[in-house]
Amino acid sequence: MVALMQLRATFFIERRAEMRKIREALVAEIGDDNLLPVLASIQSSYEHYDLTRLEAKYIAMQKPDSTIDARLELLTKSAAELTTQEEPNWEKIAGRLLYYTFSRELKKTEENYGLTSFYEKLRYLTSEGLYGKYILDSYSKKEIEEAFEFIDDERNNLYTYAGLDLLISRYLIHNRSHVVLESPQEMYLGIALHLALKEGEDRMTWVRKFYDIMSLQKVTMATPTSQMQESHIISFQAALLIQYLIHLTEFTAVYPSSPMFQSLAVAWECTLVR
What we know:
By secondary structure, the protein is an all-alpha fold. It has helices at about 1-30, 35-45, 50-60, 70-80, 90-115, 120-125, 135-140, 140-150, 160-170, 185-195, 205-215, 230-245, 260-265.
């Protein structure tokens, strides 16, 4: 028994060392040390997926003298192309790599625009006409900061590559230069703030409930009919509201006269962007 336990311990140590070596090799290829914890998380979640295959795919397609951004894009593409019916989770691995690249760029944008908090971001978006003024008129700074604490970035790991790519390109807020200015979790939180407007004294509880339902992907979101950049948020809200009305009974037994139902109905009257 002792010998078996020692053998298992040795195998575990060797396996961890091998996985660390694979991560470090990929990081060396890309040239971005911050990628290391992302790869570690991928290995932890998908331990039967061999990242040496990802490295081989990447090396086969890489071009000399490419930038780090180009290398990250190619690494993500390599993961997506490994997706098969037998190994579908390569698409989720590609999703994590895409989110890493996206968050890296969003952080640079926030630094360039001096956006150091969610509240400051809402103020900026409102001033630029990209956010409905009624959000800041209806919620205090303290409430906005409290709402931001609801955000769970681990939920970004739920995306597939295709799903996240669509979300980034069509549904997140872009400025008029087509620069993305919010994260997926901030998008969900913004919609949650909108939906909970009429919920009274306990509306922050409802902000959290709405955020959780959306960010955990517990509702199906319809495809917006409009593809126009300037109206994508309005269309997305309408699509969300349809689905919330359809799935209302999934999360609470509420009658049409309740404040929550009224807040959903009032949302149809919105003509401004969030």
